Amino acid sequence: MIKNVTVLGAGTMGHGIAHVFARHGCKVSLYEPFDAVRLSAPEKIREELQFMVDEDYISKEDMENAIANITIYDNLEEAAKNADYAIEACPEKMELKQELFGKLDKICPPHTVFATNTSSLKLSEMIQYLPEERQKRCMVSHWYNPAYLLPIAELSKFGNMDEDVFNEVYELYVRCEKKPVRVLKDITGMVANRLLHAQAREAFHLVEIGAATAEDVDQALKYGPCFRNATTGMLEVSDMGGLDVWLAGEDNMLPALDNSDKACDAMRNLVAEGNLGIKTGKGFFEYPEEKRGQIQMDFYRRLIVQLKASKNYD
Question: Model pTM?
Fold first, then answer.
């Protein structure tokens, strides 16, 4: 059983991944080489756990136990030397991840499973310089942001790992109340991001051609397809609606949908103008500075309501 987890990187994803494992009884070593990020991690972790307490998702005792299970390091060897499972959540740079895995191979015990949180880089390329035996214990373990509120975890099952090793990791994620998705091919974007970007491409396109406002495109998604898909998957919805009906619909609709192989000009223009979304105050929508914090918290509250509801989906 995996008991000792090392998380490499305490930034946007890493600190959240760390406290999920810690909340479910793992001893977590959180490694971060950059002082500013490392020193801010304890406060971020406590704030997120306190939010879960305030929303009646976990108890105060759960929070304190999770915090007690996390040790933060600036020394890679100290952080990784006892790891059963080591997951990196570093910037999406292939050379950086290759270098990190090379160092870990010299530090970690032979049984340690190496995982990457990437969804856009090829695992086969990332681990190509590792010894053959170590490659058999490497995988993608892709989390969605925010890591502590989104239940999904995509786990690669590309054929390089023994079945018992994969199953050990799968059971770890089940223990942590995640919903693991087995990804069988080393494809860009794994599964969830490919589905996400297929939907996003059409949403952006509809705004760009003036078919609907940004507000109404989001309204259509929230109270139409996404409302239904929150409880019932796309393929199950198709079965329930009748595959003959869906076949006719696909044949009629697909020729009319956007099939661009690059981001739409509407988004490209916003970025060129420096309108990057909530962090700059404007994107498809406007975010007054005095309201940004509340808007962000409302987003997290909607997610935790959904997380609670998802307990009844199975």
Answer: 0.95
pLDDT per residue as tens digits for the range 24-34: 999 999 999 99
Contact 139, 159 (CB under 8 A): no
Strand partners, 30: 7, 72
Burial 286-314 (b: 16+ CB within 10 A, else e): ebeeeeeeeeeeeebeeebeebeeeeeee
Q: Give the tens place of pLDDT for each residue, 156-207.
A: 999 999 999 999 999 999 999 999 999 999 999 999 999 999 999 999 999 9
Is CATH 1.10.1040.10 correct for 193-312?
A: yes
Q: Where are the domains of the chain?
A: 4-182, 193-312
Q: What is the CATH number of domain 4-182?
A: 3.40.50.720
Starting at the edge strand found earlier in the chain, the sheet holding 138-143 runs 70-73, 27-31, 4-8, 85-88, 113-116, 138-143, 152-156, 179-183
